[in-house]
Amino acid sequence: MQPDRSSGFSLIELMVAVVIVAILAAIAVPSYSSYVVRGSRAAAQAELLELASLQEKIFLNSSAYTPSVAAAYNGTSAGGLGRTDGLTPDGKYTLSLDIAAPAQTFTLTATPVAGKSQAGDGTLTISENGQRCWYVGGAAACTAW
């Protein structure tokens, strides 16, 4: 008769399983992090496009662009774009508006908030003529998005 062996995992088998899980996690976490950054950038781009569209509606009503991101939207240049906190909906980008007098041109900018996952991802801009730029790493050259 053979001695009774208890069934289960040996310590070596358990360690091999832990190493495999660690390797998979080391590959998956950075990939997921870059996916989150890309997704937030796409959301900021969509927000800039929406705000640029609102600016064009305001221009049609008032023959001038609004100078404020945070003021309440009323459809005229006396109002604003209605983003009271000055952030994108996910809070990862700060929105700003640069108007050239006499309010005939504008540049909307989304700057990553320091301390968030987007920090260092680059600044996004869109202007009244439709030019879309992504300034990566503080570069002066415009990369189209």
Q: What's the helix and strand layout?
A:
Blueprint: H1 11-62, E1 93-100, E2 105-112, E3 123-127, E4 132-135
Antiparallel strand pairs: 1-2, 2-3, 3-4
In short:
The protein is of the alpha+beta class and 145 residues long. The chain has one helix spanning 11-62, and strands spanning 93-100, 105-112, 123-127, 132-135.
Uncertain regions spanning at least 5 consecutive residues: none
Percent helix range:
25-40%
Tell me the series of helices and strands, N- to C-terminal: HEEEE
Q: Estimate what percentage of residues fall within beta strands.
A: 15-25%
Q: How many structurally independent domains?
A: 1
Number of helices: 1
**Whole-number average pLDDT?**
90
What Rg do the Cα atoms give? Answer: 25 Å
Structural category is alpha+beta
Q: What does the main sheet amount to?
A: 4 strands, antiparallel
The strand order across the widest sheet is: 1-2-3-4
Net shape = elongated
Query: In total, how many beta strands?
Result: 4
State the separation between the terminal residues, measured CA to CA: 74 Å
Structural write-up:
- With 145 residues, the protein is α+β, with helices and mostly antiparallel strands.
- It has one domain (11-138).
- Helix content is 36%, strand content 17%.
- The protein is built from 1 helix and 4 strands, in the order αββββ.
- It has one helix at 11-62, and strands at 93-100, 105-112, 123-127, 132-135.
- The chain has a 4-stranded antiparallel beta sheet with strand order 1-2-3-4, with helices on one face.
- A hairpin with a 4-residue loop joins strand 1 and strand 2 (105-112).
- The longest helix has 52 residues, at 11-62.
- The chain is elongated.
- The model has no long low-confidence stretch (mean pLDDT 90).
